[in-house]
Design brief:
10 helices
Length: about 220
């Protein structure tokens, strides 16, 4: 039986200490997350990481890990959350302003994946592990999509976007260019003003501006 309070290392004599439910220790969690990163940075593949190996590297017991995560998939997703740029804090009341923050986070995550060998390798490996990829999609990507769609709806309600168009289509049109640049064209530039340019183009439209004829119509000359 483990100690009532989780520590980065199992302590002797814990069999005689009372259990107090499922206390959470920030130090233990930090040690576990850092252990996974350490193993990955040393070249260990995701498929080769076992709970036993992670626990040994973190200096905790396996039970300490299982009290926090039901399995490796949940743990690995939290590791990714930890090493990726943090999701932005949005107001939840603004429309285009919140949408801009969410799109900017897509850009910064794209930059992070390009500059971090660890992130690049982990994402490449995740796609060959269906359970892990599904866990990441369901617990990380899906909430981000919900937040962005909600921001688009708020922009419509605030009169910042048209109210006669499909909201989900508008959401796709805002997010699409960012995904093309960050995922499908990893060699393309991600400049600081990219989000503002995308929003401006979408708000102004792609149709050519009306041509203004400088000549005075013949009818007006009479």
């Amino acid at each position: 039986m483990q100690a009532a309070q989780d520590q980065p290392q199992d302590q002797a004599g814990s069999d005689h200490e009372p259990r107090r439910g499922r206390p959470r220790s920030a130090a233990a969690e930090r040690a576990i997350l850092d252990a996974v990163v350490e193993l990955l940075e040393s070249g260990e593949p995701l498929a080769g990481l076992s709970i036993e190996r992670i626990a040994r590297t973190a200096g905790v017991g396996k039970a300490t890990i299982y009290r926090r995560w039901s399995g490796k998939e949940e743990l690995f997703v939290d590791v990714l959350r930890d090493i990726e740029p943090a999701d932005p804090t949005v107001s939840g009341t603004a429309g285009l302003a919140d949408l801009r923050l969410l799109l900017e986070s897509v850009r910064t995550r794209g930059l992070a994946q390009r500059s971090s060998v660890l992130l690049h390798n982990v994402f490449a490996q995740m796609k060959s592990h269906p359970k892990l990829w599904a866990e990441y999609q369901g617990t990380v990507i899906a909430p981000r999509r919900v937040a962005m769609l909600a921001a688009v709806r708020r922009a419509v309600e605030a009169g910042e976007l048209r109210d006669d168009l499909d909201v989900e289509l508008m959401d796709d049109m805002f997010l699409g260019p960012m995904l093309v640049r960050t995922v499908h064209r990893p060699e393309s530039a991600l400049p600081d003003d990219l989000v503002d340019r995308v929003i401006r183009v979408l708000l102004q439209g792609l149709a050519p501006k009306p041509q203004v004829n400088a000549e005075i119509p013949a009818s007006a000359r009479a």
